[in-house]
Amino acid sequence: MHSVAGALWNPIVAKEYRSRMRTWRSTLAITIYIVLLGGLGWAVFAAMAASSYSGGLNPGNLPNYGQQLFTFLIIFQVALLAFITPALTSGAITGERERQTIDLLFVTPIPPFSIIWGKLLASMSFVLLLLGISVPIFSLVFLFGGIELDQMVEAFAVSLGTALMLGVVGIAFSCMFRRTLAATVAAYAAAFVLILGTLLYGALFPVDADPATAVSPAPPAFSLVGPVVALFTIAYNGPLTGYGVRYSQGSGGYYSKGGAQCVTQPGGMTSCYSTSGPVTVNSSFPGGQNTKLTTGLFQGWQYWQASLVMQLVICAIALAFAAYVLPPIRRFRLARPPEAAPVAVP
Hints:
Structural class: mainly alpha
Radius of gyration: 25 Å
Order of helices and strands: HHHHHHHHHHEHEEEEH
Number of strands: 5
Number of helices: 12
Mean pLDDT: 78
């Protein structure tokens, strides 16, 4: 138990907590975060009310309103965390170098990995605080219905995993570079690639669907590193229709199958209509309540589970890299070719 407490609380964590929460910047960041998130929720609610009949909400569409409001809120929250988290971690180590205090940390009994862990834990605690204070805003979604508690928990787990991934990547760049500006630019570039780049990858390099089967393939595994696909799947309780899949005939989910014309409907259902003779039976692609990956490396897993696992793998790699490059004296070095012996000149 003592080792666990020492891992969760060391002098670096205590120092970071005191220095971070005593400044006005933390209070300002929390205020801006809540105002932006609450303002978006109010704007989406007002837009839905304005577009409804007679200026009021249609009771029959309340579950759809809840799903739409939840989707806007959770995607916007991830976008805010993508802006905040790299700023919290990218200057953690470079700031010590610029203040010329990094050498003082190296001569203390605290190992380099504990320095990295303490910086990361303090930053992620602030992110946890932001997620915690946003719960009352998200709880308004339950007034409409359409979203269950398990969906809320899964969405927050993906959001936290995304913030942790961006935080560890920012720490790695902070250990790698000497200046905060360079580390910050690299951290934001990595955040752009991990969130939007992976989403674009699935659109540019989709998986080919086999018209002979009634199973829609899963999108490329790399596209699940980002949280967008997983969050849409959680919000609508079904896969993102048409994303990451290329049909061999036609576009937009239309293809021919056994004398029938088939089209993928929203929610993942596929309806087939006869082009000659009796109407064929409908074939069902994964959708509705089924949010599992049907093919690929994570076959049978939930979308959010696969996304969270890949994010944790990236965290482990970035954390190991940071622990390797931070110490001034490294125990493990890459092998270098032996230097040639000097040639004596007669």
